[in-house]
Amino acid sequence: MKAVYRNIFLGIGLAAIVLMLCTSDISYPDLWMNIQKAGYWFPAVLGLWILIYWLNAWSWSVIINDGTVSKVPFRCIYKYTISGYALNYVTPVGLLGGEPYRIMELTPYVGASKATSSVILYAMMHIFSHFCFWSFSILLYLLMYGQTMSSAMLSFIVVCAMFCALGIFFFLKGYKNGLAMKTLRLLARIPFLKRKIGRLITDKAASIEKVDAQIAALHAQRKSTFYKSLSLEFFARLIGCLEVQFILLILTDHVSFWDCVLIQAFTSLFSNLFFFVPMSMGAREGGFALAVGGLALSGAYGVYTGLITRVRELFWIAVGLILIKFGNNHK
User: Fold this and answer.
1) What is the pTM assigned to this prediction?
2) Contact 97, 9 (CB under 8 A)
3) Looking at the chain, which terminus has fewer C-beta neighbours within 10 angstroms, N or C?
């Protein structure tokens, strides 16, 4: 990727961080006090994401390589994974962030078509694993608390189950038939994008169809690659639940790992409903508070968990933005 494009991505990320810090109502003395209260658990939370991003990068590399000799060094995939997520965190829906950045970085190694299809496939896999994780958590909740839940909670669980079933159906259909052309045609209906996207569809129809063919082939012909990548993403989500447990151990020792899975599942579901907000500002904290309340814990636990999680995100966003400028291959 040309240096000017990296500077553009870096500028977008920095501008978003400055905007969020200026508009946030967080008291920085209180924030520092809460970080000190976390003690050695705070470095543990930060370090946990080294493993989580490594699993994410491994999942993506499985799609990129697809059983062939690797053309992209894993350290580069790891770097693009961290930087891509940093850009996705600070841009609404990630439309200006991670996916375009990853495609542009990967293109010199594997070509534009393969880079585009692998990035789209990984983005689909990442979202698909959300639905699998939520479905797993619904079954876990029924197993742990099914006999004591209220009628209101039962109604909520039914709605969540229907939502997950719809999402899984949509993604399986997308894997079967491809998703690139349908997504572009949907975007072409937006007034200010209609002309530009329409021209792209006309000029690049053959390339887009090739991308769709590669997406469909992954699920239809290379099931081992598909399920290995999905398993790694799902396992990364389970490992991520340790973050909630690490933070709650600062406050209480009466929360099991499986309770933390339920808290993480409910919180991620709630924050993803507000996907258009950068970093899910406010939605994440509200989700944590509601989740711990649903498990008969103090809502203050959820607010504190959301606060520490927000600091962790800012740390890794900074790392990701720094990596955009460093460690690039100039060969």
Assistant:
1) 0.81
2) yes
3) C
